[in-house]
Amino acid sequence: MNYHQEKKFTDSWFFKWFLNNQAVVAVLITFLVFLTLYLFTKISFLFTPIISFIAIIMLPLVISAILYYLIKPLVGFIEKRGVSRTTSIFIVFAIIIALLIWAVASFIPMIQEQLTSFVENLPSYVRSINVEANKFLDSPWLANYQEELEEMLSNVSTKAIDYAESFSKNAIDWASNFASAIARVTVAIIMSPFILFYFLRDSGKMKEGLLKTLPTRMRRPISRVLGDINKQLAGYVQGQVTVAIVVGIMFTIFFNIIGLRYAATFGIIAGFLNMIPYLGSFLAMVPVVIMGIVQGPIMLIKVLITFVIEQTIEGRFVSPLVLGSKLSIHPITIMFILLTSGSMFGVWGVFLGIPVYASIKVVVKEIFEWYKRISGLYEEEVLVIEGEEKAKDVE
């Protein structure tokens, strides 16, 4: 195509209205994305063996990746002191084993004692809840709603009985699933240290090996994308674990101050669940509020005040200081990701939804920047921005 033919083509209505139109390009890209997803649903059976394999190795890989981002700074710190990489890793492993032994010796007996006491006292707790519920239902200001409340309680009781019968019928399936889960966790615990060791020792070689398989022109942008993803994941994992530890300590102290039973156990559970952004704190409230009801209305008020204080401290001080704006994800987006990924992929979706989204966001951003450079559809916007910057410099 010579110059005149190319000029004629760029001046044509087809080029102006379709090929050089941002809205049309956006619609076309959206259509292609949904078409790809639709085709994937039609041939998903072809990927069943791959998905099964990924499901088997997912747990040890996730555990190893989390520990990798937590341990890597300590390994680097020791290595800077003149110790070899491998020796640094073994030193850190020895420190972790010592901490685990101390934690098992210190906390496991206490948690076991509290859980045993909770199970033994469960019938009396249920009776206490029934007494408090009856007092609440018999209050004068609910007299006009007795029929509705009785109907609601009847429905709840019926559903509870149905769930109990269903559970008893499927007890064997539950037991087999539980045994299978225990087996997977055991295999993951055994495999994770070995995977973690090679992650810590050979992560740089893995990246170099991957880049060598790519065309030369693609190595620099791919390296930049991998670096950004690594930075995002490191910030997320380290920040969430740090916040979870701080929250667990705060809850344990606060629960002990107000005199809540099983304070340490509830504090540890709250800290662990806090690794699920936003939803974790509300999930942790459920057993604590139930225990507050058992111990009386005054304790329930203390528990609710404790949660308000903790959420204020976490939201105003802990999370901004630890996490900052490392992920640059709006809270509404986070809630949407958690709800969507949780409904689609269950527990895995809740825990991995945000880091996966952050990684995809980095890739999409890089692709969009590349598209802006080669398409020429955003040149006018770039020129306007450059003109504004020059005007500011002159002023």
TrEMBL record:
Stored Pfam families: AI-2E_transport
Name of the protein: Hypothetical membrane protein
Principal subcellular localisation of the protein: membrane
InterPro entries membership: AI-2E-like
Superkingdom as given in the UniProt entry: Bacteria
Protein's membrane topology: Multi-pass membrane protein
Transmembrane recorded as keyword: yes
Subcellular location(s) per record: Cell membrane
Annotated source species: Streptococcus gallolyticus
Family affiliation: Belongs to the autoinducer-2 exporter (AI-2E) (TC 2.A.86) family.
PANTHER family reported in the protein's UniProt record: PERMEASE PERM-RELATED (PTHR21716:SF53), TRANSMEMBRANE PROTEIN (PTHR21716)
GO CC, alphabetical: plasma membrane
Transmembrane residue ranges: 21-40, 46-70, 90-111, 178-200, 241-262, 282-305, 317-339, 345-364
Keyword terms, alphabetized: Cell membrane, Membrane, Transmembrane, Transmembrane helix, Transport
